[in-house]
Design a protein that fits this description.
The protein has 123 residues and is mainly beta. Helix content is 6%, strand content 24%. It starts with 31 loop residues before the first strand and ends with a strand.
């Protein structure tokens, strides 16, 4: 973990979840998923290092879409109790989820502040 470089590239086409087969596996009905550990680390989280200053830190525990590297049924999560660190937990442990969507690069925010009362509107 100390020398790991996160990446957004997926080496296995079967793992590229998309709504159509033109740029992935076409297994999704809706373009909503969970963040991977690579995406969380690119946003600023670290393994075994406290960091509450990156934008994904929300003072709550939540699952990612990434499996743990050990032989047990673990998946990786983010732990607010350890100040935003990357962790792995047994899948029976109760954590929240933070759904994510991917937008095309030509999408623009036309209005809103990104709050519950004034959400972003995109065009």
């Amino acid at each position: 973990y100390s020398t790991y470089e996160p990446s957004l590239n997926c080496s296995r086409e079967v793992d590229i979840f998309t709504v159509n087969e033109s740029n992935g596996n076409g297994d999704l009905d809706y373009p909503v998923g969970l963040l991977t550990i690579d995406e969380v680390m690119l946003a600023g989280s670290k393994y075994n290092i406290y960091n509450i200053s990156y934008y994904l830190y929300v003072n709550s525990n939540w699952w990612t879409f990434s499996p743990s590297s050990n032989t047990y049924n673990y998946i990786r999560g983010i732990n607010s109790g350890t100040y935003g660190q990357v962790l792995f937990n047994d899948i029976s442990y109760s954590l929240g989820v933070r759904p994510s969507i991917s937008l095309k690069n030509n999408v623009v925010v036309s209005s809103g502040e990104g709050t519950v009362d004034n959400p972003f509107r995109i065009d």
